[in-house]
Write a structure and sequence with these properties.
This is Iron-sulfur cluster assembly accessory protein. By secondary structure, the chain is α/β, with parallel strands linked by helices. It is 15% helix and 34% strand. The radius of gyration is 18 Å and the shape is globular.
Length: 122
């Protein structure tokens, strides 16, 4: 009797800890649909800048960078680069459409403070 040792190895793409609300995913998907693009991702990045030191960047991107982490939210792929991932771990992105405010909002448990205008964090 022979026993075969078959170990399945799977290589999974890294994922990130950003959450996207249904409203945010729907709005981003609608914007891509308006442009007729299904080959782009919603990229979330953290860049130096702003009066508090760091600034969020949300934009559509077709590039793939080394170390990118992906997640799928109802057909919308969201990507975070390797350097930004620790800064946005556990962050929740929502889309608000009220009389007072319209746009994407980010609730980030890693941000210890933000500037008065709310454009940047540290």
């Amino acid at each position: 009797m022979s026993v075969e040792n078959t170990t399945a190895t799977t290589t999974e793409a890294p994922t990130h800890g950003v959450e996207l609300s249904e409203a945010a995913a729907g709005k981003a998907k609608a914007l891509l649909d308006q442009e007729g693009r299904d080959d782009m991702y919603l990229r979330i990045a953290v860049q130096p800048g702003g009066c508090a030191g760091l600034r969020y960047q949300l934009f559509f991107d077709e590039r793939t960078l080394d170390g990118d982490a992906f997640r799928d939210f109802g057909g919308l792929k969201v990507v975070v680069d390797r350097m930004s991932a620790p800064y946005v771990q556990g962050a929740v992105i929502d889309f608000v459409d009220t009389i007072e405010k319209q746009g994407f909002t980010i609730e980030n448990p890693n941000a210890t403070g933000s500037c008065a205008c709310g454009d940047s964090f540290h």
